[in-house]
Amino acid sequence: NSYRIASVPGDGIGTEVVSATIQVVEKLAKTLGTFKIDFEHIPWGTEYYKQTGRYVSEDYLDTLRKYDAVLFGAVGSPDVPDHISLWGLLLAIRGPLQLYANVRPVRTFPGTKCPLNTATDGIDWMLVRENSEGEYAGQGGRSHVGQQWEVATEVAVFTRVGVERIMRFAFETARSRPRKLLTVVTKSNSMRNGMVLWDEVAATVANDFPDVKWDKMLVDAMTVRMVAKPGSIDTIVGTNLHMDILSDLAAALAGSIGVAPSSNLDPTRKNPSLFEPVHGSAFDITGKGVANPVATFWSAAEMLIWIGEKDAASKLMGCVERVCAAGILTPDLGGTSDTQGVVDAVCLEVEKL
Amino acid sequence: NSYRIASVPGDGIGTEVVSATIQVVEKLAKTLGTFKIDFEHIPWGTEYYKQTGRYVSEDYLDTLRKYDAVLFGAVGSPDVPDHISLWGLLLAIRGPLQLYANVRPVRTFPGTKCPLNTATDGIDWMLVRENSEGEYAGQGGRSHVGQQWEVATEVAVFTRVGVERIMRFAFETARSRPRKLLTVVTKSNSMRNGMVLWDEVAATVANDFPDVKWDKMLVDAMTVRMVAKPGSIDTIVGTNLHMDILSDLAAALAGSIGVAPSSNLDPTRKNPSLFEPVHGSAFDITGKGVANPVATFWSAAEMLIWIGEKDAASKLMGCVERVCAAGILTPDLGGTSDTQGVVDAVCLEVEKL
Ligand SMILES: CC(C)[C@H](C(=O)O)[C@@H](O)C(=O)O
Ligand SMILES: CC(C)[C@H](C(=O)O)[C@@H](O)C(=O)O
């Protein structure tokens, strides 16, 4: 039970939350004594880009393949256009490593406040996002740049392989949860090709999961349901863009955008999966030592589950939840603690395990 | 001051809410005596399709061009795939008539309940949606249908003309409102062509509106802001798909999805504009006489403003708001009235004008 993890803190508060998380996970491994874990620092990000002209090394995919998993911080810097930095680093990993399932649990979390008065029983959703194609396929271009007749396109590409594998993954995810409900989100009334393929594949794959109750919903109507009937939702699956939007919305509705984790999985396990907080590089608070590390703690717990340390993961989450419930929170959640204060409190809880 | 309006009730409850609205608007015209209005019934919709094989007549664009405006109900039927019915009727009008500005006011409305406890000062937003291109350009296709290597594409098409005209319209809309704030929504971190064009055009057009305060926001982050800081928002502009999603979300957050109106405008006034409730055909309640007509009343008020009867429009909205505030509401808003009950109550208010 010995793991090698690539640590890619990236930009902004990425560095702060990843180093906070390494402290906590190393403490956990040492205290429990049931597994060993090594984090190796990889310096990719905007600084690296400024020095080398690239966000990652030339052999970056091979480099990552040497590890059991990747713990990622954030990417993006005020002085580089976002489409350069994101395609240079994060999106250069998700697609090429075929991390096709982006999984985002969203639930009301200790220390956070749910802003919805319709969520009387709290929120407990599992969001599954197609992470390798669709609107993020990277196709499209611009012609006649600057002319009145300029045309720019963004081409969403859906393959049957791509849709089938994420659909199957989503049905399996729904099956593993107590309520066994799945909502397939598309926009097949206005988009007649890839979205209709999604509908067709959903209907076919559903035949293999008679124990999962599923329905279809248009992405616009889904936002209404999330607001008005949060209790009717369990697992959701949708395209790269639709779930990008719905997962931010979900975290906001649960009141937990500051603590939201995300797993970028290759379910075939041919490649290492990548775990990252949903928040970004947040340059406005970078260097102040007040970044909220909880989303990265939670992402690390998801990573531990993925590599096979389920018990350690649930112990870690227990510690984190106790600290949050005790009100040891960073300013974004209305607390007065700094990042290291939260780290120390979680380490103290870990010591008690 | 005499107007000819094409009435296209379409499918499902469309028929019920449009006929309710005609009663109210005719009463208003008669009572005020300041303008004349004629509604002419056009039978397009799923029944028409079943009889003729088309959702609209062959010369439908010329037919519509004879009117001062179009009052539209809904389209969509359980026995026809949505992408057939919608492209057959509604989307066959929006694009070809160049109704490029879809305008959706959203505000906390008498009789509705806002589910957000962050919206302490209520919600008052103006949503502007590009309505003629982008993700709804209708391009794309499927190859190798049914094979494992099947590929389906949806091509979003953005033209400089299309982006500039909606941006200018949005800045003008923002300028006409007391707070003069505009948020331009894009997704230019992951979409590098059309979305970057949006960013560039926004920056250029903004130069002509020094009195408007504007900012940019990614569509995913915008959902978070709508939930967490609703008071920071005034006017929003975005693409066809992004604003389709955000406008449903906005109405849900304001608690007013049942009353949400929508204007499909040709700001050049070469073509008649189309006004419709945001809700759809709702076959589950069709024929029961309980459809909520308020969204269509409000849409008709927006139509009156557009054709030049601003005073009549504000009087109509006053009557509708008084009826809603008095609790005369359909079941979707928790009331016990039927459609005709709401119509009668509004007509009574109109008589008092
Ligand atoms: C940073 C950005 C490219 C990314 C995305 O849009 O996928 C982020 O919003 C996310 O949700 O992980
Ligand atoms: C009916 C449908 C095609 C339409 C859309 O997606 O534009 C609707 O959702 C709307 O918002 O007007």
Q: What order do the helices and strands come in, and which of them pair?
A:
The structure is a homodimer of 353-residue chains.
Chain A: E1 2-10, H1 14-32, E2 36-41, H2 46-52, H3 60-65, E3 69-74, H4 82-88, H5 90-94, E4 101-107, E5 124-130, E6 134-143, E7 151-159, H6 160-175, E8 181-186, H7 194-206, E9 213-218, H8 219-228, E10 235-238, H9 240-254, E11 261-265, E12 273-277, H10 294-307, H11 310-325, H12 339-351
Parallel strand pairs in A: 1-2, 1-3, 3-12, 5-10, 8-9, 8-10
Antiparallel strand pairs in A: 4-5, 4-11, 6-7, 11-12
Helix pairs in contact in A: 1-10, 1-12, 6-7, 8-9, 10-11, 11-12
Bound molecules: 3-isopropylmalic acid (2 copies).
Domain Isopropylmalate dehydrogenase-like (chains A, B): 4-346
GO molecular function (chains A, B): NAD binding; oxidoreductase activity, acting on the CH-OH group of donors, NAD or NADP as acceptor
Family (chains A, B): Belongs to the isocitrate and isopropylmalate dehydrogenases family.
Task: Briefly say what this structure is.
The structure is a homodimer of 353-residue chains. Chain A is of the alpha/beta class and 353 residues long.
Q: What are the defining features of this structure?
A:
homodimer; 353 residues; alpha/beta; Isopropylmalate Dehydrogenase; 2 domains; 10-stranded mixed β-sheet; binds 3-isopropylmalic acid
Description:
Chains A, B: InterPro entries: ICDH/IPMDH (IPR050501), IsoPropMal-DH-like_dom (IPR024084), TTC_DH (IPR011829). Chains A, B: Pfam families: Iso_dh. Chains A, B: Residues 4-346 form the Isopropylmalate dehydrogenase-like domain. Two copies of one chain form a homodimer. Helix content of chain A is 40%, strand content 23%. Chain A has 353 residues and is of the alpha/beta class. Chain A has two domains: 1-101 and 260-353, Isopropylmalate Dehydrogenase (3-Layer(aba) Sandwich); 114-254, Isopropylmalate Dehydrogenase, CATH 3.40.718. Chain A has a ten-stranded mixed β-sheet, with helices on both faces. In chain A, strands 6-7 form a two-stranded antiparallel sheet. In chain A, strand 1 (2-10), helix 1 and strand 2 form a beta-alpha-beta unit. The relative contact order of chain A is 0.17. The mean pLDDT of chain A is 97. Chains A and B meet through helix 4, strand 6, strand 7, helix 7 and helix 8 of A and helix 4, strand 6, strand 7, helix 7 and helix 8 of B. The complex binds 3-isopropylmalic acid (2 copies). One 3-isopropylmalic acid (IPM) sits between chains A (86, 90, 244, 280) and B (189-190, 220).
